[in-house]
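User: I'm curious whether this sequence folds into something compact or stays loose and floppy. Could you predict its structure so I can see for myself?
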Amino acid sequence: MEKTFIPKDLWLRFGCFLSGHNYQILSECSEASKRDQKKITSALVIITLIWSIIGYIFSNKYLNFGPWLSLLGSAFMAVLIVQIERQIILSAKLNSWAKFFRVLLGIIVAVIGASIIDQYLFANDIQKIAQASVEAKALKESNIARNAYQTAIAQLDSTIMVEKFNYQKIQTQVLKLPVTLAGGGGGRKYDSAGNLISEQQSSRIPNPEISNLRAFQASIASKISVLENEKIQKGQQYAEEVKNKAKEILNRKPGFLDELNALINYLLEFDPYPTALIFYLIWFFFFLLIESLVLIIKSNHHENDYEKVVDYQQNIRIRRLMALEDKRNAALGSESMISSSSNLIDHLPR
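Assistant: Here's the prediction. I'll summarize afterward.
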């Protein structure tokens, strides 16, 4: 007879590895105990496979881990789920609080699982809604930038208007002033008879007040030119900033929360029937029932010989410990009596 390298009861060994039961004890038990273990193993395999897929999808799509690291995320999720289920499987007795918290955890896990699966299955529809949300966000930020730009431009226009008013005011003053003023050296000369010999016109000089006003006017014109250039630069910066910001937002890949918000909006759209919401609820109750599978099996479970063997081993251990404790107390008592007798003999009256 040929020997095979496949261990006997491989499925049972694998089930004990997942559930935490002792294979050496279970292998000596009845078929009823092995059957209970196989039911638990099947439930664990179903739950582990489903959550491994969800872990892979989440790691690959939202954490950008790539194929190999996503496999690691899938394995992590599988281990996490198995450890959670072991809390129920390895409990000797399930009280009401344990069942309540397990159902509550099942609801939370079902919501997470249904959301991730629906985001994956409805990816195209959700992508459209998420893209529309991103575009609305880009428009909102563009309006904020435009309002800031308009405020800055309004301040510049107000300053330019004030400076132009001052420039025109100075121009009006210049036009009212005489261009030149009379200088010295003018007059007429007469002879002794009183006849006019020569007449010399007095010299004219430029009005110095006009020169001062023109210089001030030139400084105002220079300031107006600087403000106009600043206005042009702000317009160019605003256009470039809005263009780059819109490009950045539109090229930004929607994250998990963006798609989750889009999924909520998509589920609440009744166009004309709540098809997406019904499909989500189907997945939700599917995950909830899968998560409750181990709890249901454990709640309807009757004590088998495996559990009786474990209880028997525990009782034997407790009895051995009690016997050792009694023996130790007896030994301590004997030593105390011997010590008291020796003390009495040593101190007898002479």
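Summary: Residues 13 and 24 are 9 Å apart (CA to CA). The longest strand covers residues 196-200.
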